[in-house]
Amino acid sequence: MKKQMVLRDPRIWIEELIRGFIADSPLNTMRNQAGDKAWDDALVGFASGSDPIWQQYKEYIGPFHWTPWEIYSQRFPRKPACPEDLTVVSWVLPQREMVRKANRRTRKYPSEEWARIRVYGEEFNAALRRHVARSLNEAGHEAVAPMLTPNWAIVMSQRFSYASSWSERHAAHAAGLGTFGLCDGLITAKGKAIRAGSVVARISVQPTPRPYADHRAYCLFFAEGRCGKCMDRCPAGAITKAGHDKEKCRQHLVRSREYVKETYRFEGYGCGLCQVGVPCEAGIPVKAAREALERCELPPPPPPLA
Ligand code: SF4
Ligand code: SF4
């Protein structure tokens, strides 16, 4: 049996693991001529495996949606653990300014930069999931990246047209990293132009506080009854006041494949027009929510003098 390594502070250790891989891995590339990096930063959060939010997701999204305990138990049937033994490590990779800027100019299909990130940036994200899970396993903490398990699946859902057995955005929401917008994207402290990743591990890490009571607190449309800019940006008419039509969005992504191949000469796709040129592109547009997060991030007050 592998002995668990004593990590000096598991939260810092994991954050450094993620940031170090972003800084040093040769896989972090857009594979363009300039050899630009795909990502240069990450937000990292943690949620307990026993947080009631996982059961709420299951009830809301569907019984096929895994709790952290379910995916852990599938992967490690001989190493049983309780939900409270588990932590979900979640990260958000914010799109770089040059990628956002390029996609801001587009009106129908993605910029080359955005399509490269959708394919090669996500390949890096998959490598990051493997790296975090492997490093934790090597340190004696069983860990699994739900999105990389062979039985992760997209499931047809009456309520959502389709949904999946694990959602990176929902994991990030549980880990205090953001709330949902009208277009279904996750609005984070670095905005909505992001990709996300996660790993479930048998390790104890203090959960990141969720500075929101409402799962849509960072969206101007829900918080203040205004904005709706993402509706204007969507070339497929997939966003209305009623929310995000996943099927229309999916069909537009399918059409984008041909455009990307013909225009940029590589196999790719993407859109993300609703993630840029909008108030939530690179930050939280709701002032009260921004302030709540800032209060949450303040260091704890020093202990009283004896
Ligand atoms: S563009 Fe406006 S309405 Fe759409 S998600 Fe962002 S804040 Fe919400
Ligand atoms: S990704 Fe594109 S098609 Fe889908 S909702 Fe956003 S703008 Fe519309």
Task: Please explain how this structure is put together.
With 306 residues, the chain is α+β, with helices and mostly antiparallel strands. The chain has one domain (10-296). Helices cover 37% and strands 14% of the residues. The chain has ten helices and ten strands. The strands form four sheets. Strands 1-2-8-3 form a four-stranded antiparallel beta sheet, with helices on both faces. Strands 4-5 form a two-stranded antiparallel ribbon. Strands 6-7 form a two-stranded antiparallel sheet. Strand 4 (154-157) and strand 5 (161-164) form a beta hairpin. The chain binds iron/sulfur cluster (SF4) (2 copies). Residues 181-183, 219-221, 227-230, 278-280, 285 line the site of one iron/sulfur cluster (SF4). One iron/sulfur cluster is lined by residues 181-183, 219-221, 227-230, 278-280, 285.
Q: Could you say how many structural domains there are in total?
A: 1
- Fraction of residues in helices? 25-40%
Q: What ligands can be seen in this structure?
A: iron/sulfur cluster
Order of helices and strands: HEHHEHHEEEHEEEHHEEHH
Fraction of residues in β-strands: 5-15%
Overall 3D shape: globular
**Biggest β-sheet description:** 4 strands, antiparallel
Structural class: alpha+beta
Q: How large is the radius of gyration? A: 19 Å
Number of beta-strand segments: 10
Q: Can you tell me the residue ranges where pLDDT is under 50 for at least 5 consecutive residues? A: none
Determine the N-to-C terminus distance: 46 Å
How many helices? The count is 10
